[in-house]
Each structure stands twice: as structure tokens, then as C-alpha cells.
Amino acid sequence: MNDDAQRENANDAVTPQTADTGHSGPETLDVSGEIDISDLGAPNLRAALEAVLLVADEALDVLELASLTRRPAAEVGTALEELAAEYADTGRGFTLVEAGGGWRFYTREDCSEVVERFVRDGQQARLTQAALETLAVVAYRQPVTRGRIAAIRGVNVDGVVRTLLMRGLIAEAGSEPDSGAHLYRTTAYFLERLGLNSVEELPPIAAYLPDIDTLDTFDADPHVEV
Questions:
Q1: Which 3 state secondary structure label does DSSP give 70?
Q2: Which of 64, 72, 147, 68 is nearest to 103 (CA)?
Q3: Beta bridge partners of residue 102, listed in sequence order
Q4: Is the pLDDT of residue 82 over 90?
Q5: pLDDT tens digit string along 43-65?
């Protein structure tokens, strides 16, 4: 009995004890492979990348996208390549291309005919309500970035801005010093169409936009992304 008791005591001495720290260790790992998206700001990484690239003024590199999505650069790079392959395989009308050191959406080359037709026909069509609203923001806030226009209108304005550029109503006016984003202004053709000599002859904006104070908050509030 004494020998058995000694052996039992010896086993107890060498057996590691688990401290009760409230943490269950490796057993808390998510074995399903799901990634915590609480800090992503989107349903998943692919959705986050698509959303950012859709509103970006210029191509974004992997490091920028990794910083925005708070994911490792290697993971972001893989996701971008998978998205590009998926778009190509499914025959979408757009592609995701890495060019000039960054990633950006482009229309497919073999869709150029219908795009040209849209642009050509659009020259004769009347401006949509969305185009008129965007043009008003440019006219009264110029020079202004595409991001700021989108923030003021509350919607994506990429397509509308392209239409206004193609119709010669707005033009690029350099880049914003801090962000490098393109700035836009109205053109002489815009003034001609309205019968004005300068933008100073535009009617007071307060009469048409009673919520002007709301627009000013985008200039005053440093926490508003533009």
C-alpha cells in the first residue's frame, strides 16, 4: 500500500494542472474557418474590397486595401486575384485589373461597342435627375472631389460623373493636395448651356437647397469621410 501511495503521489506531482483563467485555450478556436468580421465593416472581405473599389477615384494598391479592410496584405491580394478570376470566368461586363501599381474596375474590351453606343446616344439625351443633382453639387462646391460629391448626395456617383465628363459639362481640375483625389469643376460649355458668363451668376443656392447647413457639415466635421 505504501508503494502504491508513493507512485500515486509521484504521478500527481508531474501531471500539469490547468489554471482556471476563464480562457479555454485552443478549444475556443473557430474550427469552421470563419473569420471574425467585427472590425471589417462589411459582410466579408470580398464585399469590402468591391465596395471600396467601386467608389475609389483611382487604382488602389494591396497595402492601401489591407489597411482599409484591416486584413493581412497576402489575404487581400489573394482575394483580389480570386475576384478577378471569378469576373472573367462568369463573363461579367467588367473586369478587375491590376495596373499602374493598383487595382481598379474596368469595362471589358469586348463590351466597348455597347459602351460607345451608350455614350454617343447619351449626348442627345436629357440629363437625368441624378445627373442634374450631381451637376449642381459641382457647380456650387467646385472644385470638388468625387468622394465629396458622393458624400453630399449619399449615393455612388461614379457613373454620373463619367456621363457629365463625356458630355463636356464638367472637367478635371487638378488633384486635392492631401488625398490626391481628382477635383472637378464646371466647364465653359456648362455656362454656355445655361446662358451665363460665370458661375458667379448662378442663382443663390439657399433658394434651391434649403438644407445648405447639412452640406456645410461635410466641410466642418473632420470625422465625415469624403
A1: coil
A2: 64
A3: 99
A4: yes
A5: 999 999 999 999 887 889 999 99
Domain spans, the chain: 45-109, 126-219
Fold of 45-109: Arc Repressor Mutant, subunit A (1.10.10)
Q: pLDDT tens for residues 164-219?
A: 998 889 999 999 888 888 999 999 989 988 888 888 888 887 555 534 444 444 44
**Cβ contacts of 101 within 8 Å, gap of 6 or more:** 59, 61
Q: pTM for the complete prediction?
A: 0.46
Asked whether 105 and 53 are in contact (CB, 8 A), the reply is yes
- Comparing CA positions, the residue from 188, 182, 193 lying closest to residue 149 is 182
Q: Which helix (H) or strand (E) holds 144?
A: strand 144-145
Q: Which residues contact 88 (CB under 8 A, 6 or more apart)?
A: 95
Cell of 132: 442634374
100: confidence class by pLDDT, cuts 50, 70, 90: confident
AA letter at 171? A
Residue 157: other Cβ atoms inside 10 A: 25
Q: Are 173 and 183 in contact (CB under 8 A)?
A: yes
**CB–CB of 119/165 below 8 Å?**
no
Percent over 90 (pLDDT), the chain:
39
Rounded CA-CA distance 203/216 in Å is: 18
Question: What's the CATH architecture for 126-219?
Answer: Orthogonal Bundle (1.10)
pLDDT band at 223 (very low <50, low <70, confident <90, very high): very low
Beta-strand (E) ranges in 6-101? 94-99
184 pairs with which residues across the strands?
144, 172
